[in-house]
Fold:
Amino acid sequence: MTPELASFGSGLNVVVIGASGGIGSALADELDACSVVSNIVRLSRSPLAIHSDSAWLHIDLEDEQTIARAASELTQIADMWHLVIAATGILHKPEKTWRELSVPAMETAFRINAIGPAMVAKHFLPLLATKRKSVFAALSARVGSIADNQLGGWHAYRLSKAALNMLIKTLSIELSRRNPEALCVGLHPGTVDTALSKPFLSGVPVGQLFSPKQSARKLLAVLDQLTVAGTGHVYAWDGSRIPF
Structure:
């Protein structure tokens, strides 16, 4: 069942960035079906075939001008936005050893997984509604946790997601000063059957692989449960806090 997002109130304006991806598309569909959502805008690099009343805007995480333009276009749709989700990310072939490290792979991981969300935050955090609950959320990953890392490997992905986690923490501090009712959080969606994770699913235990819809519903339920005291942290699909 689609979470009702009751903690946000009614008349929500929501944005999903990366709405062409597996998780982003599922999040947008679930939000589109939510009774308290008034406006939903889907952002992606490629045009979307949308079978609903929601709008689509172009955005490219590697081009700040498109990010700024999308933010400006959102202000023409609504004055304030209550939920902004950056459901973006990239995972190249994970390195099993330091011998496989490469500059191009690391640069790409940081551009998409850390720098892109940072530029999105720069232009979208000022759009968050004030004097009521609002949330900026970005998809992170458990492998970005330094404390949780017991296996090594996956260097570029781990580093870029750890950078994203630090970004979330840092942004939350400034956001709490400017907009005390707003949250900035990271979300770990679990292992989801998407194109990004498809090559790495063979060893996933039974019952631990989610469909995009299952993951989206779990993540929205987590966001619904959070209060402003939870800002600046990364949360797994089950609501547990992931250590930095």
